[in-house]
Write a structure and sequence with these properties.
The complex is a heterodimer of chains A (214) and B (503).
Chain A (H helix, E strand, L loop, with lengths): L5 E5 L3 H13 L4 E4 L2 H7 L5 E6 L7 H10 L6 E5 L4 H9 L3 E5 L7 H31 L3 H11 L4 H8 L3 H15 L4 H13 L3 H8 L1
Parallel strand pairs in A: 1-2, 1-3, 3-4, 4-5
Chain B lengths: L1 H16 L5 H19 L3 H18 L5 H77 L3 E6 L4 E4 L1 H7 L3 H4 L13 H14 L3 E8 L5 E13 L2 E11 L1 H56 L6 H30 L6 E3 L1 H18 L2 E7 L6 E3 L1 H20 L6 E10 L2 E8 L27 H11 L5 E4 L5 E7 L3 H9 L1
Parallel strand pairs in B: 7-9
Antiparallel strand pairs in B: 1-2, 1-5, 3-4, 4-5, 6-8, 9-10, 10-12, 11-12
Helix pairs in contact in B: 1-2, 1-3, 2-4, 3-4, 8-9, 8-10, 10-11, 11-12
Classes of the chains: A alpha/beta (214), B alpha+beta (503).
């Protein structure tokens, strides 16, 4: 089931929490409230959206939450709002990726709004990319063993002739298999093919990511 | 007995000389009779016995024989004669003695009177000297005491004044005596002086009042004046008073108070500095909410769809509330930082505790410390300096947070509890930190005692000063968690106390 993009608001101050929810609501995005990072971690299983969290909270703080999510392999965009952005904190935050640090109160009245918009867009495009990637992987998976042999040799830049002699088949057979590879993976040039395969192979599969989250 | 023996002896002697003599009987009986008779009459026995014996001996020695009759006559004659004689003699003697006594008395009376007069005169002279001595001593004392002493009659005219009083009024003793009270009283004291005089004269009460007035040169004078009725035959005839200039003492006290206030103020400011991060967080919370709500309203109004007015109403309401919350925090902070004079007011302890928790909430959160409050319901209000009591709570919580920061425990906790006790309301601040150093529980409240690397160690000492000024004592102990517990009791407002105890 594909759930709708949601803003997850984590703050131990109920008034602050409600205000972020109001903001998200005004953007037409559904929200979900959590009084602590712990309760959010209990709930969250990789659903789409972004997280707006306070830095200072009883129990796990905003950066520790980011770390926990990072360890789980989650890439959900995180907006950490804090009254005290310190350098060490910023460095740590950036190391763990996917984060926006906002000073509280922010200089610009639409900072959080913008941050939420950006984060949601990011999450969306990341998910879309992931989806594409998964489809690419699927298409590569769909190749027959013989076709994959040809694909691997193509990636190494082997010529058709060399392939034919190496695999001990006719040049024609090689050309047929090459055509199959292009059509199955739905690319037209060798350059496209190389880029797609490399991208697909360097990414973890969707299955692995969700396994590590649960 | 002696007589019997003597008589018996005599009979033996008589028999030796003249065995045939029948005088024996007489000598045996005579002394017995004599002794009885003489004793009953009470006259000199010895003389008659000797006469009787001499008589008997003479007769025996001369060989005369007498009949029993003759001897008895003799024996009876002598005592009767003696008795008669002695009775007459005694009567005469008694009369003489009585006469002598009356004569003596008659002579003694004027003599005694004269002696008494003489004695009295000397005594009076002596006591007059003593009186003079005491009087001069009293005058000396009156002249040397630094307090002004005065005596007024029922019309409030000055009857007596000592040197100190004259000096205080810049007047001579001759001027002041007999003067109406108004003239002998500094202008600033006159009204209250008249009122108290009248009260003493009317009700016979003992009054002690403090007078404060400003001199023409702007200096302020403080006087402590005690007045009591002067009684004569249980009627009030005047006023006796003692006036003491306490200006210097008052000024010293004031200076001390000012210094104390300065110290408290400085410590508060330093607390504020240390708490800055937490305070900034406190202030930022409502600002953050306001920005979010305002943005939400703007988004809704700017959006392509028809704005949801209900949402806008809710959100603008929230903006107002949050702005008020921010204002409240800044007001609290301002009063916490600025005010330096002690101000007692009737206050709710629960509110004070909640506000104090608000001050350190930020710091507690970042140190991962949970502050719980366990406040008794329906506590009577206390009469305290709100800011100072907040300062104590902030200090205690701050200490606990710092102690907990370096302490490895699953959940760091501070519990503030209040409860009603007979003496007032008890406030307890407990933590599950490392506790107090076992041998230093006494020193911990001393100024400059610190176990920390930062800070000067005045926090607990200042807290204790504040609590002592509120009539209690800050005590500390190690609690069941092994952490530290600090407690003190605040007095409740009198009027409510009685309400509570009766209803």
């Amino acid at each position: 089931m594909i759930s709708e993009s949601t803003v997850y608001v984590v703050d131990d101050d109920p008034q602050a929490r409600d205000s972020v929810c109001a903001l998200a609501r005004s953007m037409g995005v559904p929200t979900k409230n959590f009084p602590s990072a712990e309760s959010f971690l209990d709930f969250y299983r990789g659903q789409p959206g972004c997280v707006v969290t306070d830095y200072r909270m009883t129990g796990i703080n905003g950066l520790e939450l980011q770390e926990s999510l990072h360890k789980r392999g989650s890439e959900v965009p995180l907006i950490v709002v804090t009254a005290f952005a310190r350098t060490s904190m910023t460095v740590q935050a950036i190391k763990n990726g996917a984060i926006t640090l906002l000073d509280k109160p922010y200089d610009d009245d639409d900072s959080l709004w913008q941050a939420i918009r950006t984060a949601l867009a990011e999450d969306d495009s990341r998910r879309r990319q992931k989806q594409e990637c998964a489809e690419d992987q699927q298409r590569i998976e769909n190749l027959s063993d013989k076709e994959r042999e040809v694909l691997d040799l193509m990636l190494l830049g082997t010529s058709n002739k060399a392939m034919a002699s190496k695999l001990d088949v006719s040049l024609r057979t090689i050309e047929n298999r090459r055509r199959k590879v292009f059509s199955k993976i739905r690319v037209e040039t060798v350059a496209e093919l190389v880029a797609l395969v490399l991208k697909a192979r360097n990414r973890p599969t969707v299955e692995t990511a969700s396994r590590s989250i649960s | 007995m002696l007589l019997v023996l003597a008589a018996t002896g005599m009979c033996v002697l008589t028999q030796l000389w003249n065995p045939s003599s029948d005088v024996t009987y007489g000598f045996v009986i005579a002394p017995l009779v004599l002794s009885v008779v003489y004793r009953s009459v009470g006259i000199s026995i010895g003389a008659n016995v000797i006469i009787a014996i001499a008589w008997a001996v003479t007769w025996n020695l001369t060989g005369l024989t007498v009949t029993n009759h003759a001897l008895l006559t003799h024996l009876l004659y002598v005592p009767i004669l003696s008795i008669a004689l002695s009775i007459t003699q005694q009567r005469a003697l008694r009369k003489l003695s009585a006469y002598h006594e009356s004569l003596h008395e008659r002579v003694q009376e004027p003599h005694d009177a004269m002696r008494l007069v003489a004695e009295e005169t000397s005594l009076r002279a002596k006591s007059e000297a003593e009186l003079r001595r005491q009087h001069s001593l009293l005058e000396l004392i009156l002249a040397t005491v630094p307090d002004g002493i005065f005596l007024k009659d029922r019309n409030r005219n000055v009857l007596l004044a000592n040197r100190a009083l004259c000096d205080h009024n810049n007047m001579k003793l001759e001027e002041i005596l007999g003067m109406p009270s108004e003239g002998a009283t500094p202008r600033g004291m006159r009204n209250l002086s008249r009122e108290t005089d009248e009260a003493v004269l009317r009700d016979g009460v003992h009054l002690r009042k403090e007078y404060v007035w400003e001199n023409s040169d702007g200096t302020v004078q403080y006087w402590d004046v005690e007045k009591m009725p002067l009684l004569e035959n249980s009627k009030i005839v005047g006023i006796l008073g003692v006036a003491r200039n306490i200006t210097e003492r008052k000024e010293a006290e004031k200076k001390l108070k000012e210094q104390e206030a300065l110290m408290l103020h400085a410590s508060r400011l330093s607390s504020m500095g240390e708490l800055a991060a937490g305070i900034a967080h406190e202030i930022n919370q409502p600002l953050y909410s306001i920005l979010n709500y305002a943005r939400a309203v703007k988004n809704t109004l700017d959006g392509p769809r028809e704005p949801n007015l209900e949402d806008i109403g809710t959100w603008t309401g929230q903006i107002l509330e949050e702005a008020a919350r921010g204002g409240e925090i800044s007001k609290r902070l301002r009063s916490f930082a600025r005010r330096s004079e002690t101000q007692r007011e009737q206050a709710s302890l629960s509110a004070i505790v909640q506000e104090s928790i608000g001050f350190v909430a930020g710091e507690a959160r970042s140190s991962n410390v949970e502050i719980q409050s366990d406040l008794a319901d329906e506590l009577p209000s206390v009469r305290v300096d709100r800011v100072q009591i907040q300062q104590v709570l902030v200090n205690l919580m701050k200490n606990a947070i710092e102690a907990l920061q370096n302490h490895d425990v699953a959940s760091r906790q501070i519990v503030i509890s209040t409860r009603r006790v007979p003496e007032g309301v008890e406030v307890v601040v407990a933590d599950n930190g490392p506790g107090l150093p076992a041998d230093q529980t006494v020193d911990i409240i001393e100024p400059f005692f610190t176990t920390k690397n930062e800070g000067v160690g005045l926090g607990l000492s200042i807290s204790n000063t504040i609590i002592e000024a509120h009539g209690s004592k800050l005590s500390c102990s190690t609690n069941a968690w092994g952490g530290a517990t600090f407690e003190y009791t605040l007095a409740v407002c009198e009027n409510q106390f009685s309400q509570n105890s009766t209803g």
